[in-house]
Amino acid sequence: MSAELHALTLVTILTALIWIPYILNLILVRGLINAVGYPENPAPLAPWASRMKSAHANAIENLVIFATLVLVVEIAGLNNATTALACTVYFWARVVHLAVYTLAIPWARTLAFVVGFLCQATLAVQILF
User: Would you say the pTM of this structure is higher than 0.90?
Assistant: First the structure.
C-alpha cells in the first residue's frame, strides 16, 4: 500500500471514530431515551462535545476533498516523496485540528486547518503540474 493510501486510511478511520466521545456526552447529559429520541427541549452538549461535533463536521467536509485528491494521485500514478509527505502531514494536521478544536485553542485550530489545506493544495499542484 502506498504512503498516500495509508494516510487516507488513517484519516478515514479517525473521521469515522470522532463521533463516539460526543455521543457519549449526549447520552450522559440527556439520558439514553432522550439521546435516541427527539426531546422537545434537549439538554445541550458540554461545550467540548459541541466543539468536537463541529470538528467532526469539518473533518467530513475535508475528507471528501482529500480522498479525491489522493485517489487521483494513485490512479494517475503521480505518487512521489512530495505527495507522500503531504498525505502524512495532512493526517497529523487533522489529529491536531481535532484536539485543539475540542480544547478551544483558536490560533492552533486555525493553523492546523491551514496546514491541512496546504497539504491538499500540494496534492492538487502535483496533479496539475
Answer: yes
